[in-house]
Amino acid sequence: MKIHSLFILAAGLFSSVAHAQPQSEAAINTKIEQLVRQMTTAEKVAMIHATSSFTSGGVKRLGIPELVMSDGPHGVRVEHGRDWNPDRNVYDSGTYLPTGVCLAATWNPQLGYAFGSVLGSEAAFRGKDVILGPGINIIRTPLNGRNFEYQSEDPFLVSKMVVGYIKGVQDQGISACVKHYALNNQEILRTSIDVQLSERALREIYLPGFKAAVQEGKVNTLMGSYNKVRGQWATHNQYLMNEILKKEWGFKGAVISDWGAVHSTMQALWNGCDIEMGTDLSMLPNPNYGRFYLGDTVLKLVQNKIVPEYILDEKVRRILYVMMKTNMLGGQRKKGSYNTKEHQQTARKVAEEGIVLLKNENNLLPINKDGIKTIAVIGVNADRKQSLGGGSSQVKAFYEVTPLQGIYDLVGKDVQVTYAPGYEIRRGATADQLSINKAAEAASKADVAIVVGGWTHGYNYAVWSDNAYDAEDIDKPDMNLPFGQDALINAVLKANPNTIVVMMGGGPVDMSQWIGSARAVVQAWYPGMEGGNALAGVLFGTINPSGKLPMTFPKTLADVPAHKLGQYPGDSVKVYYTDDIYVGYRYYDTYGVEPQFAFGHGLSYTTFSYSNLTVTGNGKSATATFTVTNSGKAAGSEVAQVYVKQDKSLLPRPEKELKGFQKVFLKPGESKKITVVLNSEAFQYYNDAQNKWVMEPGSFHVLVGSSSRDIRLTGKVTL
Ligand code: GLC
Q1: Which of 12, 192, 200, 713 has the largest CB neighbor count within 10 A?
Q2: Of 54, 56, 71, 146, which is best to mutate to test ligand 1, by the most ligand atoms within 8 angstroms of its C-beta?
């Protein structure tokens, strides 16, 4: 074979291999430069703003497609069409995963990966390049309407759960979009409020999840939030975007604005916003996206040399980087799958591991179905589908097993199951005595009663906030159960002390009126399409619950630090986070305020004992080893948590801070030795007088336990 043809053969082989392999950064950059060099200024401008409800511009001439995005964090959203009119008759009902707080309550990073894989696979199937999740804003107040979409009050737990999720999505060839960066911790005034906070609170509480998403999760895109931070819009905020995200953290992907979050052409150009999304609804039905801040104006600014072209090139490079990472420019995109059994099983597993057993006096749970004849199921949430509620994170579920359905499917052939709604979901509805009487009557005739209440999502996806408490764009008025549920629960408990209270929703309610007399309480969040089966499994013991609270359940709203030390929701212009670093258990444990249920709390149908803690320090890090034993009769999983407490520090520090955890499955009598490495970051805090992370030499306590307030072992180490 002549040399010439050998060469051709080799080159051909190389290019096909290059296609199949994930491209090296160098190859990616070469390809990007090639494309940018060929683009006109107008073509570059077309790429940095929306071209429809969920797409941003491409360059047909060069084979650069539009970037196609879709919500949301726990399922691919209904097909919204290019003009915000939901497309009809499309195959867009998919896997409705449990929402973020339920995933976080599993404390299982591997499940985070599985969760992300389902999401990425279904997004690929639906022809999306970017899925607009995970949402990871810190849960600062239980009133935030979007807590259900988020994860935790603790930055370490967020950091561990977000990485798996992002890798899961992106290993399917799709880009995740971590949001909302940053400090979007309330929905009230979300598009205008200006958040003021200390550098220490920013660094220690509100940024770590995003930093992990970028540096460990290698997230390809990030969404800038609606609010302002220290006087400048978050989505084009010099400090957040240029200084921290791109310079300090080395973020290589693209910043996508929240929809309508851009307010200034020059700020968006200079302060790191790469794509302006949104639709000014007044522009419908024929929106002119050229009128965007990052639209035609930019062309004139560059052509008139008011803005240097390299600013535009930088944005285009980042967008092309995202496209290269998702095989949009050559390369094969995995085609993804939709509504598979595996996806549904993952949804179920997350629900089974995320449901939290809060209270179980005299082991009322699990219910032994052989010992009973009748079960009274009470409460609208028992029979309500939740998937379409909540706002932009809505999913048209392929199916949704409600709690009532799940209970019926599991025990309905052996036990009589009755149902009474007990209340109605209508804004401002108070206790309806007739409905309560009917429910109490049903409970009195049953061996066991199960009340399924809590918050609600709204229902109609066109008006997501109808009667909703857990939804975008609104916050809850307080922590009180709506629709007269307190009176209902008390009436049912009186009619039948063998009553289990199941709460659904994105976070805590004020339980003070009935928690004393309720022997068993379960937190079920929004457990997704298989939630009813998962909940039934927990209630009847085919599943041993292992969920742990990812946020504190306070006794009353007045105890919440954001309300007691901080400002919420602020005045109409600014909100001061004077609760500072004392968010969640960092407050309750430091200020000695007893919560209803502690951060990290969750019971099991078995018991676990802890022993043999040794903590060995070496220089700036330490290793904690200890043994966990299943000291009960049922197999189950325990989340062993490791907290650190610095004895003496220059600046005050919280009573304890989560710096490690591990979930272990143990058969009865089985023991496992657990090792948790505490690297130097586990001992540092951010000294914002010196503007740097510091680790002060001295002694530290290492606290190991089953929750932040159920510490079983303590060790000490001097570093
Ligand atoms: C919404 C939300 C954001 C969502 C976007 C697109 O306003 O804040 O989370 O991804 O707009 O629907």
Answers
A1: 713
A2: 71
Q: Does the CB atom of residue 179 touch ligand 1 within 6 A?
A: yes
Residue where one domain finishes, among candidates 550, 566, 597: 550
Per-residue pLDDT tens digits for 378-394: 999 999 999 999 999 99
Q: For position 35, which CATH number holds?
A: 3.20.20.300
Is the CB of 53 inside a 6 Å radius of any atom of ligand 1?
no
**Centroid of ligand 1 to alpha carbon of 296 (angstroms):** 24
The residue contributing the CA closest to ligand 1 atom 4 is 392
CB 669 within 8 A of CB 596: no
Q: Looking at residue 701, which CATH number applies to its domain?
A: 2.60.40.10
> 535 and 377 in contact (C-beta within 8 Å)?
no
Ligand 1 in reach of 132 Cβ (< 6 A)? yes
Beta bridge partners of 69: 130
Alpha-carbon span 539 to 519, nearest angstrom: 13
Q: Per DSSP, which regions of 163-243 are E strands? A: 175-181, 194-196, 221-224, 228-229, 232-233
pLDDT of res. 464: 60
Query: Mind listing the pLDDT tens digit for each residue in 201-249?
Result: 999 999 999 999 999 999 999 999 999 999 999 999 999 999 999 999 9
Is residue 662 classed as helix, strand or coil in its secondary structure? strand
Identity at 154, one-letter amino acid code: D
Q: What is the CATH number of the domain that holds 431?
A: 3.40.50.1700
DSSP letter at 23 equals: P
Distance, C-alpha 460 to centroid of its chain: 22
Which domain-ending residue is among 325, 345, 380?
325
Which letter does DSSP use for residue 223 in this model? E
In the predicted model, is pLDDT for residue 101 greater than 60? yes
Q: How far is the CA of 123 from the centre of ligand 1 (A)?
A: 16
Least confident of 267-281, 408-422, 515-529, 704-718: 267-281
- Res 1: pLDDT: 42
Catalytic residues: 258
Residues 6+ apart with CB under 8 A from 452: 377, 378, 379, 381, 382, 403, 404, 502, 504, 524
Res 602: pLDDT = 98
